[in-house]
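Trying the structure run again after the queue cleared.
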Amino acid sequence: MLEIIKEEENVKTVKVTVESEKVKEATEKVFDELSKNVRIKGFRKGRVPRNLLKTIVGTEEIEDMIKEKVADMALDKLYEDEEFKKMNVMLPPALVSIDMGEDAKVVFEIHLYPEVEIDSLEGEEIEIPELKEEDVEKDVEEELERLREENAVLEPKGENEVVEEGDHVEIEYHVTGKEETPRTFDFVVKDPKSSQLFQDILGKKVGDTIEFIDERDENKTSYTMKITAIHRRILANLDDEFAKSVDVEAETLEALKQKLREKIKGSFNDFIKTFEANTILNRLANKTKLKMSDHSLELFINHVIMRQKENKEYEKSLKDFKGDENAYKESLKKEITNYLKIKGAVEKIAKEKGIEVSEEEIFEKAKEYYSSMNISDERLKVTLSKEKELHDRIKNDLLHDKVAEELLKSAKIVVKKADEENNAEEDKKEKTEEEKTDE
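Done. Tokens:
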């Protein structure tokens, strides 16, 4: 049974007693392992006297090895303790000290997820963008044009015809100077100003070879390419026949346009729903205070970095900060603090409001995630039962959504008109100009 000897903010210092029999067991194990592994002439394997082992290995080293065994025993005992199981543990217990008396006294620091204090969000104002009809119509026209491009008919060009903007071109290519099997690639030639490749290929015929340097690659890799086919792209007319060809349910072009309008408005509404939820949760973080020690935060940061190093992700993360470890740590500090604030606040509100997530809801959400993979319901249930991390992540996402929905009930949603946005930008520019003039 653990004994709490100190409590400060989110840290509990606990003592675990390892009984004398277990200490003796740890001692026996250490000497048995050493006796089997240390080879000394004149002694059979496993028969080396302890006094001789102490002389060869060193008394302090052996004592450290025994302490390590005892610490492992204490940790196992801690994990089995019912009081520990009830704790909202944030990090693995940290070993503080071992007192090797007849019974060993092992002290751990247990860092818990911090408690939170939340200021009221009642009447919080959230501005959302306006969806104007002219914007919807513009998106509809763009989508129709995309469908025309996607369903273009390809007509082979003659052997003396050259590549022009808008053509569909097929090529074989390989890295210049390397003996390798050519790979194939096809693309539509667009505005030559947008790519050196488009500039180089214009005016070329089937069978022509060009060399292209990939400027986006820091190694400036050079490719040798041979044109194998050129097709003229013929776009369909925007009429009822076109509408039927791209959507069997659309009898007319107007019917297709209406479906596109509904889809665009639906996507916009989904975006707004996500935007509102993210906004209110960010406001929640700003209104939340953590009861947390700086020591816990530092340990959390180091724990994240250690996991990144184990997964060989640390160097990649550090590149975004030009190798500045302090800058990266500071960024992690803000990210982790925000995460802990939202986590603590969401769980507290959910408990106060009686908000829960059922296993059925988790399963249905998982089906959405895996809808494109044709996984059977039974197999998905097994996956959720085995992969606790996946299960908990889905549960966490659903809880966040439910709490955000609850908070939005008392929020004030304001539609930001496009004209108002433009006026605000103009006011901002005028204010900036006035400040410059004053200087």
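The two ends are 70 Å apart (CA to CA). Worth checking whether this holds up in the mutant runs.
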